[in-house]
C-alpha cells in the first residue's frame, strides 16, 4: 500500500483526486488532504508519506516554494498543475512526473505505476535542477535528465546522437558511450527535446540530432548516415520537413 497525501488549495480538486485514486488506484491510501503548502509541510512531517500529489499554483507558498523547505525529499512526488508550458518543461527536464488538471484517470494510473516501478526515490539532483530552472527562468537548458530503471542520468543534450523507439521505452545513443534505455516513450522524448532546435523527428521510430548527421541518401523517404556510422530511415511524411532544415 502506498501512503499518500494530496496538497491543493481547491477543495473540489482534492475531492476529485481522492475519488479517482479510490476508483482507479486502490493501492494508494490517501492519509491526508491539505489546502495549503504550509499545512502540507506539517502533515508530511507527522505522517511520513510515500507519495505526495502536489499542486504547483497555490497562494502564499506554491508547490516549488514548499519543496525548497526540504534539505532532502524522502517521498515520491507527482505534480498537479494547470497548463503552464514553462513549469511543465522544467518538470520534464528533471525526469519528474506531473498530471494536468482536469486529471485524466488513465494518466493517473500511469503516473502511479511509475512510482511503484521506481526502485529508488527521486534524487536530490533532480529537485535541484527543477528549482534552479524555475527560480532563474532559464531557457538555456544544457542537460536533460533521463529516467532509467535504476534512477536517472544527466546527459548534455548535444551529446545525444539519436533516439530510437522501443515500445514504452526509448534507446538513447550518446557520443563515446553505449546506449541508455530511458523509461519514456519516443513521444515523451520528443517533447523533452523540443527546446533544442537541433533535434527532429524523422520517423515514427527515430529522433536525430541534426548536428550529428553526416549525409542524407535519397530514396522513397531516404535515410541518414549518423556520426556513429548508423543509418536512420526517414519516413516519406517527414522527408520534406527534414530537407527544409538543410
TrEMBL record:
Give the HTH LytTR-type domain ranges.
144-246
Q: Give the highest taxon in the source lineage.
A: Bacteria
The cross-references to InterPro entries, in alphabetical order and at most eight, read:
CheY-like_superfamily, LytR-like, LytTR_DNA-bd_dom, Sig_transdc_resp-reg_receiver
Q: For this protein, what is any one GO molecular function term?
A: phosphorelay response regulator activity
Q: Does the keyword Phosphoprotein apply?
A: yes
Report the residue ranges that make up the Response regulatory domain in this protein. Answer: 3-116
Q: Which residues carry this modification: 4-aspartylphosphate?
A: 55
**Stored Pfam families:** LytTR (PF04397), Response_reg (PF00072)
Keyword set, alphabetical order: DNA-binding, Phosphoprotein
PANTHER family referenced in this protein's UniProt entry, alphabetically: STAGE 0 SPORULATION PROTEIN A HOMOLOG (PTHR37299:SF1), TRANSCRIPTIONAL REGULATOR-RELATED (PTHR37299)
Report the protein name in the record: DNA-binding response regulator
